[in-house]
Amino acid sequence: MKKFSTAALCLAFATAAFSLTVSSHAQAASARCEFLANAPDSHLVVRGDTLWDISGKFLQHPWCWPQVWDMNRDQIRNPHWIYPGQTVYFDRINRRLRLGSPSGSPGDTPTIRVSPGMRIQGLGNAAIPAIPSNVIEPFLSQPLIIEENELQGTPRIVAAQEGHVFLGKNDKAYVRGDLKDDTAFQVFRPGLPLKDPETKQIIGYEAVYLGNVKLVQADKSGGASAHVFNVVSTKQEMGVGDRLLPVPPTPILNYVPHPPEQPVDARIVSIYGGVTHAGQNQLVTINRGKRDGIDIGTVLQLSRFGETIIDKTDGKKEKIKLPDTEYGTVFVFRVFNGISYALVMQVSDSVQIGDVAKSPE
């Protein structure tokens, strides 16, 4: 996906959206967001930078970025852009970050405003991403999570090209079902159910993305025949019985890292690819979503439950629980009703199913 719109920085002070004055906001930010002792005076933005990387050069916790820029909620959702060649300055007196010259003279940095949902050709392509966009791009428009009964009534492959058991690129696929005037589709098959580690209830199904197909010839017989599709791309072999969903619009995502607006105490449900452990830049799902206050850009802190052991040192053999171990952060980049996908950012240990993902402290 080439039109991945990216997050960037804002120069305005926070407004009443946070119901805080500038001074009280600064106190709250300083209490939670500490600058590194060796933070540089400035950083020249270069191609290949990410917002997370730049944050990490100045702050102990990169997710604190919006606080030291005094960003309100609307500005987090629709931030300004930042480009290679611009400079981020550390205002040590006010404990703030800003774009512009050291003097901070008006007009130093041009402001480009982007309306919500507007598609910008060329503008966003050069701006720096919030996180490594190449890692998550393939997962931004694929279905991934399928709700129960969502597959009912969707078009399905009923036959493969003559002599083929499975379909590959440029093969013909024969499809039955209502296309609803769409011509471009993604092909997938239902995967294993995802169970909540806490309740053990099924909270969704992870779809196995197989590839893309495009309509060549529509069925004009009213359902007595089949539509003809051409296989445009394949990630895995597709075949009879696999289902089609329309290709969604290319997402326009403007976001910056931020803690959730309300306390979140989630668990790791699965690790993408069916493995048992994850490291940096791998994808995980958590058992919280839109209905729990999670949105794109939410940052959560990872920790592992402390072991319960028997204290054999005093003869009483009491059971005690060791403290939980904090070991990293995840960045939410796609949200469903009760499940979210997150990218593992910084970890000192491997991520495991059942680990805690909670509001950062």
Describe this structure in words.
The protein is mainly beta. The chain has three domains: 123 residues, no CATH class; 105 residues, no CATH class; 94 residues, Beta Barrel (Thrombin, subunit H), CATH 2.40.10.410. Strands 4, 5, 6, 7, 8, 9 and 10 form a seven-stranded antiparallel β-sheet that branches. The chain has a six-stranded antiparallel β-barrel with strand order 11-13-18-17-14-20. The N terminus is likely disordered. Keywords: Signal.
SSE topology:
Layout: H1 22-32, E1 42-44, H2 51-58, H3 65-68, H4 73-77, E2 87-91, E3 96-99, H5 123-126, H6 133-136, E4 145-146, E5 156-160, E6 172-176, E7 184-195, E8 202-217, E9 227-234, E10 243-246, E11 265-271, E12 277-278, E13 283-286, E14 299-304, E15 308-311, E16 318-321, E17 325-335, E18 340-347, E19 351-352, E20 356-358
Antiparallel strand pairs: 1-2, 2-3, 4-8, 5-6, 6-9, 7-8, 7-10, 8-9, 11-13, 11-20, 12-19, 13-18, 14-17, 14-20, 15-16, 17-18
User: Which regions contain 5 or more consecutive residues with pLDDT less than 50?
Assistant: 1-31, 101-123
Q: What best-fitting shape do the alpha-carbon axes yield?
A: globular
Span between N and C termini? Answer: 35 Å
Secondary-structure element series: HEHHHEEHHEEEEEEEEEEEEEEEEE
Quickly give the structural class: mainly beta
Q: What is the overall number of helices?
A: 6
What portion of the residues fall into strands of 2 or more residues? 25-35%
Largest sheet: 7 strands, antiparallel
Q: Give the proportion of residues in helices.
A: under 10%
Give average pLDDT, whole number.
Answer: 79
Radius of gyration: 24 Å
The strand count comes to: 20
Number of domains: 3
Oligomerization state of this entry?
A: single chain
Signal peptide: 1-28
Domain LysM: 41-90
InterPro entries: Bact_Kbp, LysM, LysM_dom_sf
Keywords: Signal
